[in-house]
Task: structure prediction
Amino acid sequence: MSELVKSRRLGAVFEIALNRPDARNTINEAMQAELRQAFDRAEREYQQGARVVLLRGAGRVFSAGIDLNQFPALDEGLRDNLFPTTERYQALANQIERSSLPVICVLQGYCLGMALELALACDFRIAAERTKLGLPETRLGIIPDVGGTTRLVKLIGVARAKDLVLTGRHIDASAALDWGLLNAVYPKAELESGVAQLVESLVAAAPLAVGYAKRVINDIADNPRGLRIEAWAQAQLFRTADFQRAVEAMLSKQYPIDWAGK
Result:
């Protein structure tokens, strides 16, 4: 495995870290493939006594979301058939959600777009103060399509999900905690001790009971229909001039866009 994703076993904890700090840990095709390999390894470590997965980002930022630099290179055939790409990223989020181990996402700096969608697939989200969270896809002319609408609605409700998704705005960790989007928020200096407390609580519970309880809760909140609707809507939007214009504007630092002035 290359250095885009680092993983290691620390006693009962299996740690997975996004490792593109110079690019704010933005997620590209290679990173998503390596994340899938890392979570495959987590399943093997579960058989060897691992009890918890920590998902975090190297550096000061968890992740600013998908890497926009890969979009201009997409060929026309892919634009006309986005479903295989969407399915790959949805499969990653589903893999995280279905992991045999409880997964704690440790957030700091920014958690935006696809990064938040992956965080939503985790069982717990713990953040440092001043972390910013958001789903800015509508500002790019697209929508969240990796569970960002489906899981968000079930977690925080329709009204608040519409607030985040339709506006594309960021919210701070305090608001996210009030909304139920985060499980806990700590001052940056206390973040790791807060995470350690949650790990200790999970390790103190019987591992088979934790695994079965997670599976039962996930099955009650089953997501497949919502994910299919996300993929369908995104396939339509991905071919629009709005999306192409938004990507070009953001990459050239001419963002935000005056949509009314097109």
